[in-house]
Design goal:
Chain lengths: 117, 117
DNA sequence: AGCCATATGTAGCCACGCTACCTATACGAT
DNA sequence: ATCGTATAGGTAGCGTGGCTACATATGGCT
């Protein structure tokens, strides 16, 4: 993956906490992707703000797979092994839940934080 | 503190992570408050969504005090001891920083999460 | 006397994103 | 041929912070 010459600060780790799973489900909504592709998709869709290490993403994907929200399968592309993940029905429902929770959460923080509420 | 008859789900703990400090600073912007009053203010300003336990708020306040973002002082009101916190200059700057970070963060999550972007 | 609201605090748990590694293949440049 | 980089997957262990569960104390109401 070719990174932008940076200039963007990475998101704070604690801030991301609890919001990663929803974002992972979201990038899988349009099309199945493998881990590395997911990291790229997050980077692209965040305008370069998210540049998540594999140590964050791969364990998270295994977690989501254990929870039956995504479904992984191995394949070989160009001599390299890939694990491609697909959103399950339960994952779609979970994504919808996460989206509405995000609306609620961001509303709460916005109103408490004020200043730009 | 008299709680509403509930009906509101509490915010997820992981979601709050990393966003609490900013909210604490924000409620201290208008007026100095003691811990218990801060919990009430957060409850009020969040429309009842935030009902934070003392085990969350008191350690966070000590942390902010150690960081010189707030300044605490003891007093006695109606026979009860209070520790009242005031936002410092550094705290005001930190609050501004937190606010702009929140704008950025919520923009990023919104654009990645999509659906209602 | 008992209970609640007010008020502050700590010990220890747990989840999860992170750093720092490791392995492996394909391919272009030197 | 060798090196570096992009692609691709993975784990062990750390740190942190919000949480549960508790402890302490006063004032006031019944």
């Amino acid at each position: 993956m070719v990174r932008a010459p940076v200039g963007l600060l990475p998101m704070d780790a604690d801030a991301v906490r609890g919001h990663l799973d929803g974002m992972l489900l979201a990038v899988l909504e349009d099309e199945p992707l493998h881990g590395y592709g997911i990291i790229e998709a997050l980077h692209r869709r965040s305008g370069g703000a998210l540049d998540l290490p594999t140590g964050t993403v791969y364990p998270a994907l295994r977690r989501l797979e254990r929870g039956r929200w995504i479904d992984g399968s191995w394949s070989t592309v160009g001599g390299r092994k890939r694990r491609t993940y697909t959103l399950t029905r339960a994952g779609q429902r979970e994504l919808a839940r996460r989206r509405s929770e995000w609306i609620r959460f961001s509303g709460v923080v916005g109103s408490v934080l004020g200043g730009t509420a």
